[in-house]
Amino acid sequence: MIEEMKALEKYAEEYNIPIIEKSSLRFIQKYIKENNVKTILEIGSAIGYSAINMALVDEGISITTIEKDDYRYLEALKNIKTFHLEDRITLLLADALNIDIDGKFDLIFIDAAKGQYKNYFEKYCNKLNRNGTIISDNISFHGLVESKEKIEKKNLRKLVDKIKDYIEFIKGHDGFITKFYKVGDGLSVSTRKNE
């Protein structure tokens, strides 16, 4: 399946589809393994790259992943079939903020619209199992969160402000302990406190 994975990476590069950075992916795969994660909810499937890679960590893992873009959804569907993971990855075509999901998860991975991270967190944090974790990608957003003064475009500044607000929100959240990692484009790992 190495060739298929390379083809997936090449496709993402060619069509300018953002996929998780390799170092971030390795971090998450290691986290899944070390913490015996079996159920995952992913917000933002894109073409299925991260869901496929997370599912490949262990045969006992099942993933529900949400994508709102029709084209990316169809591409993800095709890729999941290529890797014979359709029995373990459930792909939903929907806006994550407008859908209700059953079940609880060991891990929730947020990698969708950056300006909506806080809304995703608030909507889905009650879907975590005890000691469950929410991992958010792109927390440093190409280094712009640390150097906002370099941003010329107003829309981009607004987006970076929303990411900064999200960082402050998870730092101060009573129900979670959050750690930040300078891996890839920045990751936050928010673990539910024991009640």
Explain what the structure shows.
- This protein has 195 residues and is an alpha/beta fold.
- The protein has a single domain, classed as Rossmann fold.
- The protein contains 6 helices and 7 strands, in the order ααβαβαββαβαββ.
- A 7-stranded mixed β-sheet has the order 3-2-1-4-5-7-6, sandwiched between helices.
- α4 links the parallel β2 and β3.
- It is globular and about 45 Å long.
- It starts with a helix and ends with a strand.
- In CATH terms, what is the architecture? 3-Layer(aba) Sandwich
* Topology, number of strands: 7
CATH superfamily: Vaccinia Virus protein VP39
Class inferred from helices and paired strands: alpha/beta
Portion of residues in beta strands equals 15-25%
User: What kind of sheet is the major sheet?
Assistant: 7 strands, mixed
Distance between the termini: 42 Å
Assign a percent range to the helix content.
25-40%
Quickly count the domains. Answer: 1
Low-confidence stretches: none
Could you tell me the radius of gyration in angstroms? 16 Å
Question: Taking strands numbered 1, 2, ... along the chain, how are they ordered across the largest sheet?
Answer: 3-2-1-4-5-7-6
Determine and state the CATH class: Alpha Beta
What is the general shape? globular
Topology as H/E string? HHEHEHEEHEHEE
Per CATH, what is the topology? Rossmann fold
Can you count the helices?
A: 6
Q: Mean pLDDT score, rounded?
A: 93
